[in-house]
C-alpha cells in the first residue's frame, strides 16, 4: 500500500511539473507578444495536460461519496450529502482530530446545541458585525458577493486580454492582492470604474452593502424568543467558561474543544490565489515568526504548528499547504490575529482551517452582557500591590470631537490593552 501511494505521489509530482512548464511557456509567449496562433496552440497543449475536474466529480457521485443535497428536486448550490464512503472518511478524520487535539492536549470536550439564543450572538458581536459585502442586480434582484465580481473581472483581464498593458496588468494584480482590504465604498468605486455588471444578465449593479451571514430562527411556538443557527462552535465554549473552569479545579491553563456543525449563509465562497503581495508564501520557523511579532503570541504559534502536524499526518501534501495571515480589514471583529491554513487543490487555494487569537474578547463581551464574572483567580501566599493603567474615556469631550463616531471611539479605547494605550499616549506627546 505504501509503495503504491509513493508511486502515485511521484506520478502526480511529474504531471504537475509538466503542467507548470507548459504554463510558463504560455506566459512567455504572451509576454513576448507572440502570434495569436502560437499562443492558442500552446494553450491547447496546456489544457490537454490538465485533468478534468468534472470527471473526478462524476466518479465521486457515482461512488455515492458525496452528492448535492435534495438532488431529486435539483438541490440548492452549496448543500451536499455524504454517502456511505464519505461518512466513513469523515468518521476517520474526526476520530483522528479528537485523538490529535482533545486527547493528546487533555482538552475538555463539550457538545452544545446548534441553535443559539439571540442574546448570546448579540453580545459576541455576530448580530451586528458578522457580514459580507453584497451587490444586487438592479433589475432581477439576484445577489452577488462584491469582492468576487471584482476578483473575477481582474483575473479574466489578466489571463485572457492579450491587449492589456503591463501597467494595467500591474494595477489589476495589486487590486487582487489587497482585495480583502477594500471598504464598501472602495469596492463600489472599482466596480463602477471598470464597468462591471451582473454576470448573468449584464444589468447594472447596486452599491455594495453588508449582508449578515447567519440563519435566523425562533425558539418555541410563540416566536418571541429569537435565535440563530450557530455560525461557529466557539460560542458554546465561551458561555460555558465558568463551569469548565470549575471542572478543572479552578485552575489555569485549560483548553476546551467542540466537534459539530456550524451554519453560515455564504453568498458564494471563492478560492484565494495570492498572498497580500501577490507572491508565493515565504518559509519561516514558527519560533522566529513569534519572536519577530509576525505571529501574535506563543500559544497561537503552538496551535499553528499543531494544525500543520494534523494536516500533514492526515495526508495533505506539505508543498500544497500554507498559512496566510488575515489583513487588518478582513480580520474578524473578535480577532487580535488570525491565520488560515490554506490547501491548494484543482480549485485553487482553499481556506480549510481558521486559527484566531481572540484574546479575552468573547469572555469580556459575555461578562458585560450577562453580568456573570467569567474570570480566573490566582491566589498568592502574600498580598501583592500592583499598578494598573485604567482607560476611562471622557465621553462628553469625545462626543464633541467625534460626533456620530463617539461610540466607536469609546469602544476602541475600552478594548485597548495597556501597551496600546501607552503607545498612543506617546505618539500624542511627539
**Strand line-up of the largest beta sheet:** 4-9-8
Mean pLDDT: 87
Overall outline: globular
Q: Work out the count of structural domains.
A: 4
Subunit structure: Homodimer.
GO molecular function, one term: ATP binding
Coiled coil: 29-59
Pfam families: WHEP-TRS
How is this fold's topology laid out?
Blueprint: H1 2-31, H2 36-49, H3 53-62, E1 66-68, E2 80-82, H4 84-103, E3 108-109, E4 115-117, H5 118-124, H6 126-129, E5 131-136, E6 143-145, H7 146-160, H8 166-177, H9 184-193, E7 209-212, E8 216-218, E9 226-229, H10 234-239, H11 241-247, E10 256-257, H12 286-291, H13 298-314, E11 321-325, E12 337-345, E13 348-357, H14 361-370, H15 395-402, H16 406-415, H17 418-429
Parallel strand pairs: 3-10
Antiparallel strand pairs: 1-2, 4-9, 5-6, 5-7, 8-9, 11-12, 12-13
Amino acid at each position: 500500500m505504501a509503495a503504491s501511494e509513493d508511486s502515485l505521489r511521484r506520478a502526480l509530482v511529474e504531471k504537475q511539473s509538466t503542467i507548470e512548464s507548459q504554463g510558463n511557456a504560455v506566459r512567455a509567449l504572451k509576454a513576448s507578444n507572440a502570434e495569436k496562433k502560437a499562443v492558442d496552440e500552446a494553450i491547447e497543449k496546456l489544457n490537454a495536460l490538465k485533468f478534468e475536474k468534472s470527471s473526478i466529480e462524476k466518479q465521486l457521485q457515482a461512488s455515492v461519496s458525496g452528492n448535492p443535497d435534495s438532488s431529486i428536486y435539483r438541490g440548492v448550490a452549496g448543500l451536499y450529502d455524504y454517502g456511505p464512503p464519505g461518512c466513513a472518511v469523515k468518521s476517520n478524520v474526526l476520530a483522528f482530530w479528537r485523538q490529535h487535539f482533545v486527547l493528546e492536549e487533555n482538552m475538555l470536550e463539550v457538545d452544545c446545541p446548534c441553535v443559539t439564543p439571540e442574546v448570546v450572538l448579540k453580545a459576541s458581536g455576530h448580530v451586528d458585525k458578522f457580514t459580507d459585502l453584497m451587490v444586487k442586480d438592479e433589475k432581477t434582484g439576484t445577489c452577488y458577493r462584491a469582492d468576487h465580481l471584482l476578483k473575477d473581472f481582474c483575473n479574466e483581464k489578466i489571463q485572457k486580454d492579450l491587449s492589456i498593458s503591463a501597467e494595467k496588468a500591474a494595477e489589476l494584480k495589486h487590486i487582487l492582492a489587497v482585495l480583502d482590504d477594500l471598504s464598501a465604498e472602495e469596492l463600489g468605486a472599482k466596480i463602477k470604474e471598470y464597468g462591471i455588471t451582473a454576470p448573468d444578465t449584464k444589468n447594472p449593479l447596486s452599491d455594495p452593502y453588508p449582508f449578515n451571514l447567519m440563519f435566523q430562527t425562533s425558539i418555541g411556538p410563540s416566536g418571541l424568543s429569537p435565535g440563530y443557527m450557530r455560525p461557529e462552535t466557539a460560542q458554546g465554549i465561551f458561555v460555558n467558561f465558568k463551569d469548565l473552569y470549575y471542572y478543572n479545579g479552578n485552575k489555569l491553563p485549560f483548553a476546551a474543544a467542540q466537534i459539530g456543525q456550524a451554519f453560515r449563509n455564504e453568498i458564494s465562497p471563492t478560492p484565494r490565489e495570492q498572498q497580500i503581495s501577490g507572491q508565493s508564501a515565504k518559509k519561516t520557523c514558527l519560533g522566529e515568526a513569534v519572536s519577530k511579532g509576525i505571529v501574535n503570541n506563543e500559544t497561537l504559534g503552538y496551535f499553528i504548528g499543531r494544525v500543520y502536524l494534523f494536516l500533514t499526518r492526515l495526508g495533505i501534501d506539505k508543498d500544497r499547504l500554507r498559512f496566510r495571515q488575515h489583513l487588518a480589514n478582513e480580520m474578524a471583529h473578535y480577532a487580535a490575529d488570525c491565520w488560515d491554513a490554506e490547501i491548494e487543490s484543482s480549485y485553487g487555494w482553499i481556506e480549510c482551517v481558521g486559527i484566531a487569537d481572540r484574546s479575552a474578547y468573547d469572555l469580556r463581551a459575555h461578562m458585560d452582557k450577562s453580568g456573570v464574572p467569567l474570570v480566573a483567580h490566582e491566589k498568592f501566599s502574600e498580598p501583592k500591590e500592583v499598578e494598573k493603567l485604567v482607560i476611562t474615556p471622557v465621553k462628553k469631550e469625545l462626543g464633541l470631537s467625534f460626533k456620530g463616531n463617539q461610540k466607536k471611539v469609546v469602544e476602541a479605547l475600552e478594548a485597548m490593552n495597556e501597551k496600546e494605550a501607552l503607545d498612543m499616549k506617546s505618539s500624542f506627546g511627539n
